[in-house]
Fold:
Amino acid sequence: MRFRKDISAVAQQQLRRQLLDARASLSSAARDEAALQVGNHLLQLPELQQPCQIGSYFSVKAELPTHAINEQLMAHNHQLSLPILHPFRAGHLLFMQLNQTTKWTHNRFGIPEPELDVRHVTPLGHITILLVPLVGFDAHGNRMGMGGGFYDRTLSAWRQGRVNLMPIGLALDCQYVDELPVQPWDVPLQMVITPSKVWDFRA
Ligand SMILES: Nc1ncnc2c1ncn2[C@@H]1O[C@H](COP(=O)(O)OP(=O)(O)OP(=O)(O)O)[C@@H](O)[C@H]1O
Ligand SMILES: [Mg+2]
Structure:
């Protein structure tokens, strides 16, 4: 698929819908199989050969399921933190370290998240690998999310050099498009992992 860079907001919304539909047309067994392959690619990255502080996420709806990936990462001694909606910085995320006693709640989007506990907040600067959900990605590492700007705000700290992490998108193969429209606040990813390919966008 090829799309013009300057498409309108309406066309962008149509593209988002199209990509969401493509994702939803896969069976849940196919998505589970895809997650297995993505998890294996991820674990083989040189960056993950020592224990890392990984920012992951809880997948919802037809997203590539992250549950088994998260379990696999913890089994390989990586520390996992999951995002919650920031309690007072609107539009921002806060990462909470998972542990044996983590209590769960749902945020206002209905997405499961760890309960806020200041003792277990992981500063973004401690995260070395940030796994990023996406609706679509292109051949340059640009990503389209759900339209909230949450990950763009998180990644802007990295783009400004305030934190040092590696943003890796996790995706199904059907989430690829040749070229996505890009806005000034959109932060491209360094890598996207799909079942069939590890896309490395680093120079
Ligand atoms: N760094 C930022 N600072 C302030 N506002 C931002 C920033 N990044 C994105 N936004 C705002 O967020 C809104 C949504 O951005 P966009 O459409 O790129 O979302 P997205 O990338 O699909 O979502 P997400 O990042 O949550 O996956 C935009 O209106 C934009 O103005
Ligand atoms: Mg964006």
